[in-house]
Amino acid sequence: MPYLIPPRTPLTPEQVERGFDYLLALQMGGGAAVAGRAEADPGLAFVLLRLAEDIVWPATAVDGEAELSADSFALDEVGCVLLSALRDWARDSPTTAVPGIARSIIRFTVNVIPDPDHADTADTLEAMRDEHLVLAHAVHPVPGAHR
């Protein structure tokens, strides 16, 4: 059963910043650097789940234009399983899901989508944050700003 991501509006710039701030703090400072944030920000599990979908799905989904193989479908299924588990966790226990989803994103970034231009995972996360912010600002422009 495929993991279905319904059509949705991209995260707002503020949500992107919150999510990546948490990821970067965890990556660079460990659990102590993010202690208490999940309790203080009940929407953080949703934000991190959306970021996980935006990061994991494009890297694992079957590409209809690529040469298909059994490995293509296995990777697709692994992405589906991971995202389904993260979705269930976020739904059932948002506070405990936050560090788990964040660690999953970081581990996925390290092991599946390392960026040759950014040897440090924090640099890769910052580059992804910048890409997500561009999209977020395009969809959610600041009122009164000129385009």
Description:
- The mean pLDDT is about 85.
- About 70% of the residues lie in helices and about 0% in strands.
- The chain is built from seven helices and no strands.
- The protein has about 150 residues and is mainly alpha-helical.
- Helix 1 packs antiparallel against helix 7 (about 120-140) and helix 5 packs antiparallel against helix 6.
- The termini are far apart.
- The radius of gyration is 16 Å and the shape is globular.
- The longest helix has 23 residues, at about 70-90.
Q: Which helices and strands occur, and which strands form pairs?
A:
Layout: H1 13-29, H2 31-34, H3 37-40, H4 44-60, H5 70-92, H6 94-111, H7 121-139
Helix pairs in contact: 1-4, 1-6, 1-7, 4-5, 4-6, 5-6
Order of helix and strand elements from N to C terminus: HHHHHHH
Number of helices: 7
Query: Runs with pLDDT <50, length 5+?
Result: none
Share of helix, binned: 55-70%
Q: What does the radius of gyration come to?
A: 16 Å
What would the keywords be for this entry?
7 helices; mainly alpha; single chain; globular; 147 residues
Short description:
With 147 residues, the protein is mostly helical. It has helices at 13-29, 31-34, 37-40, 44-60, 70-92, 94-111, 121-139.
